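cron nightly-structures :: item 1 of 1
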Amino acid sequence: MTINGTTELETITDIKGIKTPVTSEPAVPVIAIKEEPVEKVAKEIPEKPRVKKQIPKSVAKPLDNSIVKSGKTMEELKEENSKLRKELEEENNKLRRQLLESYMSAPTKEVVSQAVIKHEDNEKVVEQIETEEDYSTVKIQQDDYISVMSLLPYTLNLSTREQGQGSIKKFTKFGETKKIVYKDLVDIMEVHQNFLEAGYFYILNPVLIRHHGLDEIYAKILTKDKIEQILYATNSDECLNLYNSANQNQQEIIVQLLTDKVHENIDSINLNIVEKISKASGVDIVKRAQEAKELSTKPEN
């Protein structure tokens, strides 16, 4: 711009009031760029090598097969597990009440029982049920009645004094049960210690057994149910195992009971059991039964 013969440059004033000269520069030439197809350009750009991400072994855990198979979440499985455990505890409580009613003769006796339960694979499984009885606080009164059972197939007399003196309790057959006053039973146990250890009579009160330290003795004595299992069961091997687990006195009782059954009706018993116990005892049970039958039918002179 020329003013009064003087050439002044054109300026531009910005918002701060600063003037900036404007020069006329030649325009920048525009260069035409040839466009290439995208596919071609992409091929020319080198690919970055792909790095495989390694998952730590501690993180890469396999899925629980039980969850995959059942299709249930962990929360659902926990809830179902808790429900099954509750049902099992209720069943165990019912069983303990039944055992208590059958074993305890006095209504005031208390039993503390525990059940060991194992739950696996979302199924109710009882691995082991152990009943532990605590009788430390249970007292037996002198006039309490205690149930006692005879395990002899013939007459059994139990007296409170030596040589059959004192009060006498008479049993006439196998499995017969009587109620005996506790103070008399204590005397009978002292007088007939050999009968007690032989298993000729059986005390049906676990409190008394524990108080008098008879657990070890009773662990070696077959109950009425076990003896009858030998007489009426069909599995001869199991019966033989039971027979062998009995003490010598009870083995003699079992032989006599088998002899009586053969004598009464040979068809009412498993002869395989008779044969195996005959070999184990060294007694020909069938022959003994036949001899007893002949004596019973032989006319008196």
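cron nightly-structures :: done
Residues 150 and 176 are 6 Å apart (CA to CA).
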